[in-house]
Amino acid sequence: MEFTTIKGFRDILPEEASYWQEIEQKARDVFRTFGFGEIRTPILEYTELFARSIGSDTDIVSKEMYTLTDSKGRGLTLRPEATASVARALIQNRLYQQGGVQKLFCIGPMFRHERPQKGRFRQFHQINAELFGDEGPKSDAEIVYLAVSLLDKFGLRNLTLHLNSIGCPACRPEFRKELKAYLADKAESLCSDCQRRSETNPLRVFDCKVEGCKAIVQDAPVIVDFLCKDCEDHFSELKEYIVDVGMEIVLDPRLVRGLDYYTRTTFEIQTEHLGAQNAVVGGGRYDGLVRQLGGPDVPGIGFAIGMERVMALVLGHGKQEPARPDLFVAALGKKAEMIAFRWVQELREKGLWIEQEYASKSLKAQMKRADRLGCKKVLIVGEREIDTGSAIIRDMETKEQTEIPLAEIIAHITSMAEGERRSDTN
Ligand code: HAM
């Protein structure tokens, strides 16, 4: 029997992983400029954390969680998203006591038992940003700007920013009432899930993927028409900030997003290039979440970027040039192999990517391997070179060979690699 990955899970092999590292590094660079610190929370949490925050009527909690029971009978769940975990960590570690605003990011795998398709996996990865302790709208604008800046840094453009406000506990009940009444009239045409949701949690009908339900919500009342004065002011100031920094907005009054914790701002950044799974980023404000999880009244806003979707867009822009080793060290004969082995380690300590042959092989075989690895330069050292006191550096493109005194090898190769790096970045 041959073992394979579980459906919807996949291996990321070294060539692709190098692009992931690049994206993650770029994200870290941008987060630093916005003053976000990294948080790493466990992948497994008590199930109740997600049920209480995301909402038990949502698709995520009711259908998509990977849940198991521990030996004491407690439900544990592989995190389907990070916001609930970060809010739990904020409360558990009393981070809010540090005062001011807490800005946290995390990068890692999430798990949802959805039907796999293009851009949708059962294990997927998110870059997550959460800002706690400010009610906005300036922090809303900053969070949206941060998401756009990250995508820009990844080289992704031509994406659209969809924005909505879904109100607060003051104005949402009135809207819920209107929506319930509208849906009650159409109950027979709704799917069985939405028939139940239209009673218990009517906003969730907006997330339904069933065509009949999608058509029905097209004519449903929209929450922006019911916003209270505070929510309306918050939303219009946010729009002003966003427009002022030159971003374009698509106002999307049906963008309620599939998680119950949102209040006021919801947003998505969408692409036309990924078919049905068009959201690269999803986010919003969640002013009641920390309190709902047993913490103090701390408002929050954040977003998550889907890394698989970013990678599909980045790699879809054409094959990227793979990274290449700085040097291959070809050694011939036991004595030379010993010296070369020491050089290899010394050069790696200086941060260079060095490759070597492990078995004793002919020069021809070693050159062939260097070529296959795409090495730019090969250092050749054998008994003759040791006797004459100098080794040879061969440029694999021009075939030019230079003799370097053995005592200068490390310094020469280090400055040569630095020069190459400079010309690569120019
Ligand atoms: P979400 O909309 O469920 O929001 O997910 C955010 C992003 O994760 C999506 O836009 C998509 O790019 C990616 N994503 C979600 N599910 C999958 C999947 N099955 N396969 C591949 N990619 C996927 C949240 O998770 C919220 N916690 C975001 C947030 C943070 N709101 C406030 N703070």
Give a structural overview.
This protein is of the alpha+beta class. Helix content is 40%, strand content 21%. It is built from 15 helices and 16 strands. Helix 1 runs antiparallel to helix 5 and helix 5 packs parallel to helix 9. The mean pLDDT is 93. The protein binds histidyl-adenosine monophosphate. Histidyl-adenosine monophosphate binds next to strand 6, strand 10, strand 11 and helix 11.
Provide the fold topology.
Layout: H1 14-33, E1 37-38, E2 44-46, H2 47-54, H3 59-63, E3 66-69, E4 75-78, H4 83-92, E5 102-111, E6 123-132, H5 138-153, E7 160-165, H6 172-185, H7 192-200, H8 211-218, H9 229-244, E8 249-251, E9 263-270, E10 279-285, H10 289-292, E11 300-306, H11 307-316, E12 327-331, H12 334-349, E13 354-356, H13 363-372, E14 377-381, H14 383-388, E15 390-395, E16 401-405, H15 409-425
Parallel strand pairs: 1-5, 7-8, 12-13, 12-14
Antiparallel strand pairs: 2-4, 3-4, 5-6, 6-11, 7-9, 9-10, 10-11, 14-15, 15-16
Helix pairs in contact: 1-5, 5-9
Histidyl-adenosine monophosphate (HAM) is lined by residues 81-83, 112, 114, 120-121, 124, 126, 128, 130, 279-284, 302-304, 306, 308-309.
Using brief descriptors, characterize the structure shown.
Rossmann fold; alpha+beta; binds histidyl-adenosine monophosphate; 8-stranded mixed sheet; 40% helix; 21% strand; 426 residues; single chain; elongated; 5-stranded mixed sheet; BirA Bifunctional Protein, domain 2; 2 domains; 15 helices
